[in-house]
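Thread: "does anyone have the structure for this chain?"

Original post by V.I.:
We have the sequence but no experimental structure in hand. Need at least a predicted one for the grant figures.
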Amino acid sequence: MVACANLSPALPSPSHPMANPGYGKRPAGDEDPHADPDFAHLPPREAEIAVFVDHLDDGHAMGHKAIAAEHPRYGQQATRTSLNRISQAGHLRWIREHLTVEDNTMRWVTRTYWSRTRRSEGWWEEFARQRNGRIVPGGLHPGLARTDEPELPEPETEPETGPETEPQPEPQPESGTDRESSTSYLTLAAIRDTEPRMRLSEADCRSLAALAEEWLTRGATPREITRAVTDGLPATVNNPGGLARNRLENKMPPKKAKIRQKAAPRRARVTRAVMACMDCDADERTTEIKGGMCPDCRAEFEAAVAAEEAGLLDAGYVPDTFLANPGAVYEVVDVPRRAAEVRAAAGLRPAPERAL
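Reply from O.Q.:
Generated one for you, tokens below.
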């Protein structure tokens, strides 16, 4: 299965959540067909997380919270640190893409790209540059979107039509012969042959033609019009025209339901792509991004790694609220304080305060 020695990795389960459409795991491409890779260059925990991520399907959620919720061994803090190490090793990047949609609206979205093949910093920089100009199909969430934010579905739209109006009388042609050749008129005129009690006059047929035409517009057939006018007649009909009008109005079939159809997918073009920090909202427009992190987040990460290596922090420690399986007893460690001590010992500047 996996080349990492003494490693029995947990693999994703069918319950692992999918990200919203357009987000989640995206392959960087340009690598061999899937085969269990050798992640021996990573520490055991990171190798196990890397195997887990590599077996996720395209579109699966890639946030550390989603992975920790499904992984049986590691909680959120351990998973987050592991993803940072995996990014440093060249397997994972966040790339923020500026999109211009067909309707000329613009927005930024952040995508998560994975490569089972280890990539150099230069390779990822070239990959981001090549994203510029790419066409992105499908609906897009307006505004700045992170990989774990919801994406709005495409609204259902109705075909464009003019304003609804009351049925208008059928235009009367100048010629009497043309006037009497319409389907609505001929249908009414034929009723007197079908049912002698409903001997509609020529004037009746002309005045009722607009109602009969509306029946036809709503999908009725001439036979259905005849049946509506003639079924269940009384023994004697004194006013055929009036009775026919009453029935045509009261038995009018409903209008055809408008077909609601999904709006055609909009396409967008990537007009700019920049590297983004995996731990904060910073990107290359405001800071330097190396190994998938900005300098401040990198310093904080390196301090935490140094603390683990110095034995100040248990490499397996995570806060109880972050545990995948809460209940186990762990040493209570003030992680921020220990990390600050290590930063000071290493000559690093204090970590910036983060807004809550």
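V.I.: this helps a lot. Confidence is low (pLDDT under 50) at residues 1-7, 141-177, 315-333.
O.Q.: and Residues 69 and 221 are 61 Å apart (CA to CA).
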